[in-house]
Amino acid sequence: QVQLVESGGGLVQAGGSLRLSCAASERTFSNYAAGWFRQAPGKEREFVAAITRSGLSTFYADSVKGRFAISRDNAKNTVNLQMNSLKPEDAAVYYCAADRGLYGSKHYIVSEYDYWGQGTQVTVSS
Fold first, then answer.
1. Residue 49 backbone class (left: φ over 0; alpha: ψ -120 to 50; beta: rest)
2. pLDDT band of 50, cuts 50, 70, 90
3. How far apart are CA 117 and CA 104, in angstroms?
4. Residue 84 and residue 1: Cα distance in Å, rounded?
5. N or C: which end of the chain has fewer CB within 10 A?
6. What does DSSP say about strands 115-116 and 4-7: parallel, antiparallel, or unpaired?
7. Please, what sign has the CA dihedral across residues 19, 23, 24, 29?
């Protein structure tokens, strides 16, 4: 059972940056693909970014390409999301997720992830 804890959310002005971190309890976190998802009030949870177990491949939603960057440090069991040029529409609760068995397009799908963090709030003021 992997436990995931997000941190780094907060209030930022439009155009600003935030860095989210996700710490995993699992010592073999390198066996898990990881992703970031977000959910705004009244909306469904949506894919933001994902990274393979090795960290060699990354995936992004079109809405964040070129602005967000996902990375991982398997030695520290962490996954990070660097968010730049934030827009008011990026405001949401951001969730870290992980799963052992992902490949290809499954990285984009909410239901493919078995483990989830509690979420961290990101607020972007205009």
1. beta
2. very high
3. 22
4. 32
5. N
6. unpaired
7. positive
DSSP state of 30: G
Q: Compute the distance between CA of residue 14 and CA of residue 1 in angstroms, rounded to an integer.
A: 37
In a 13 Å sphere around the CA of 77, the CA atoms on its Cβ side amount to: 11
Phi first, then psi: what are they for 41, rounded to 5°? -55, 130
Task: Report the C-alpha gap between 105 and 74 in whole angstroms.
Answer: 22
Whether 120 contacts 7, CB under 8 Å: yes
Return all residues near 69 (Cβ < 8 A) that are at least 6 apart. 49, 58, 81, 82, 84
In tens, the pLDDT along 86-109 reads 999 999 999 999 999 888 888 899
